[in-house]
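// run 5 | inverse folding | seed 20
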């Protein structure tokens, strides 16, 4: 029997209509590429999104066409988040931090009709053009006064807006239609496109606004640090419109000196980003404690994209007074998969014990199912110890990649392999051991590079740490710890190993420690383990070197501390 409920479709246009009507005066504050900070609100955001939707129609964009963006977190980019899917097209946010060949690949693969770009990417566009098969319209996201020379055939964002009125009815269509297209960062092979729907986006937003999700509400002011080009800024623009939260957009500047004043001046209560960004902000605050005047309003910080070290959670609490919520997910899961909130039984625990819980990768909220299986596909027990291959399924989990890349990705049960190795404990909390390609296989057992990194970063001298597995004649692989030391601090390898020996099993201890000035990061700010493995491919562990042979010069070259 068919139900008698209204068949209203879950469309992204309904989010901005709702926000404009019910939270119209709520501010959207944006740093702009031109310099000044701009204050707008949901009502104006809707008006301008409508005008942009009409402009896109005039430019020939039709239902299902792709519209690309190469842009930072600004009000204009957020307008595209509503204008493009609202009129039925698909927003492809291109990550400008990818290698140039990957950017070319993504733009060519997505076949956009219109490509928007920020002023800061004018040179990049000039460099890319010879290799682009793109024949559509280029739009520079500024006004005529700021349009750079030499881009005569590009249109201006503000000209397009000015030419339109705001009378418009958003088109109605099925919620299962595509709304946006984000490419994975392609650590192996070419980037693959994850194609989200209006329905998956709205269901994901409901989750973000739920109490056991990210608890986002109209009482929040969001400092949106995670880029709009990284998995739809983890869905925050849409969830913020759903609940009417104030949004602060930092533009191209994601460093400590730029973020701290925004946190302070805008009284942000909520923020979200990868661990590297938080580490940068905390380091800046520790170096300039005099700038931390008055109490911050910050209540919740969401950390995701890679494991949140316990020490980071502690520092966020101590320095910023913020509670950390760790989330696990991937482009393929929109990205929220599991979210680290406390259960009732944890409320009576000490702060330290609560931080232990928060250091796990979170538990599934309704909508995402997770399962851990062994090499033969058998489900492993939820005992917090049995680590295996992590699988996910749910209505905001990908069923395949754009244009069929990567072939069939779901198994017979509708599960997607995540490529992560994880365990699940009795309470359902997930612990990510590693990405399967990063886990260190030592004598038939697994060593978690993530656990070692998190332990190392707990040492007061360590700014950043990475662990990779390198070949070993007896154990197959052994861990190498690569460390960036905080400025002006001196520490020896033996100090770090002694510290680690109090944190992890003896057989997990890295065989060597190397000090470097910086570690390679991916386009989304994560440790780039593949590059690090390449960098150290000729490294020979001290224990493996012939006794009489002199020390290798490349080892000494990287040993600039300790
Ligand atoms: P990429 O890093 O390739 O751009 P994603 O952003 O989709 O792609 O990254 C997803 C991966 O990030 C996950 O498969 C997992 O390995 C890692 N990750 C995300 N969140 C966490 C977390 N809280 N703890 C550990 N690893 C995480």
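// decoded
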């Amino acid at each position: 029997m068919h139900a008698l409920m209204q068949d209203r479709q879950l469309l992204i246009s309904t989010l901005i209509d709702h926000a404009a009507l019910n939270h119209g005066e709520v501010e959207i504050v944006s740093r702009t590429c031109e310099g000044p900070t701009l204050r707008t609100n949901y009502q104006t955001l809707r008006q301008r999104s409508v005008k942009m939707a009409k402009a896109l129609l005039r430019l020939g964009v039709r239902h299902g066409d792709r519209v690309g963006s190469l842009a930072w977190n600004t009000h204009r980019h957020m307008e595209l988040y509503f204008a493009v899917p609202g009129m039925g097209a698909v927003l492809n946010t291109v990550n400008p931090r990818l290698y140039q060949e990957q950017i070319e690949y993504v733009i060519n693969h997505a076949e956009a009709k219109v490509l928007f770009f920020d002023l800061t990417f004018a040179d990049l566009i000039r460099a890319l053009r010879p290799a682009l098969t793109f024949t559509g319209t280029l739009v520079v996201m500024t006004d005529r006064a700021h349009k750079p020379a030499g881009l005569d055939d590009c249109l201006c964002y503000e000209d397009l807006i000015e030419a339109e009125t705001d009378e418009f009815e958003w088109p109605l269509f099925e919620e299962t239609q595509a709304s946006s297209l984000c490419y994975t960062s392609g650590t192996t092979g070419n980037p693959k496109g994850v194609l989200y729907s209006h329905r998956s986006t709205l269901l994901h937003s409901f989750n973000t606004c739920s109490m056991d999700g990210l608890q986002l509400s109209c009482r929040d002011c969001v400092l949106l640090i995670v880029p709009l080009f990284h998995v739809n800024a983890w869905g925050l623009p849409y969830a913020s419109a759903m609940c009417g939260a104030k949004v602060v957009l930092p533009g191209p500047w994601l460093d400590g000196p730029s973020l701290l004043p925004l946190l302070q001046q805008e009284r942000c209560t909520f923020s979200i980003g990868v661990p590297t960004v938080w580490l940068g902000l905390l380091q800046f605050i520790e170096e300039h404690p005099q700038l931390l005047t008055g109490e911050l309003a910050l209540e919740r910080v969401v950390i995701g994209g890679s494991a949140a070290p316990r020490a980071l959670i502690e520092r966020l609490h101590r320095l910023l007074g913020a509670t950390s919520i760790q989330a696990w997910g991937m482009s393929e899961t929109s990205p929220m998969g599991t979210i680290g909130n406390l259960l009732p039984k944890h409320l009576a625990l000490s702060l330290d014990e609560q931080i232990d819980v928060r250091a796990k990768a979170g538990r599934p909220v309704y909508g995402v199912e997770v399962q851990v299986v062994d090499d033969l596909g058998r489900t492993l027990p939820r005992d917090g110890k049995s680590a295996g291959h992590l699988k996910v399924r749910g209505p905001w989990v990908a069923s395949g990649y754009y244009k069929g890349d990567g072939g069939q990705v779901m198994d017979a049960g509708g599960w997607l392999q995540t490529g992560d190795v994880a365990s699940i404990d009795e309470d359902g909390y997930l612990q990510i051991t590693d990405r399967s390609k990063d886990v260190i296989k030592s004598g038939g057992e697994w060593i978690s590079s993530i656990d070692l990194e998190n332990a190392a970063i707990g040492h007061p001298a360590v700014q950043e740490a990475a662990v990779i597995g390198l070949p070993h004649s007896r154990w197959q692989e052994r861990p190498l710890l690569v460390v960036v030391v905080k400025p002006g601090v001196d520490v020896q390898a033996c100090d770090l190993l002694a510290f680690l020996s109090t944190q992890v099993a003896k057989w997990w201890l890295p065989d060597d420690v190397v000090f470097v000035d910086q570690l390679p990061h991916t386009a989304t700010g994560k440790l780039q383990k593949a590059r690090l493995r390449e960098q150290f491919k000729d490294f020979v562990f001290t224990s493996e070197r012939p006794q009489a042979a002199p020390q290798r010069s490349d080892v000494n070259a990287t040993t600039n501390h300790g």
